Amino acid sequence: MGRRVDLDDLVDAQGVADLLGLSHRNSVYTYQRRHPDMPRPVLHFPHTHTRLWLRSEIVVWDKKTRNGGS
Prior knowledge:
This protein is an alpha+beta fold.
């Protein structure tokens, strides 16, 4: 059985950018290259290039990172 997720917890790249205070959604992919510990998308739809992250994972990671944990 795959991982269960709350659909209301899913955010796209723009949602991640908003949570992290980034001005562009493309900055999310730059962040992923710079921060290997950043949560990865839980869903990826290759044909549309859509990726979805768990909001809760991004929020926890952001708090940890801002407090010097990374």
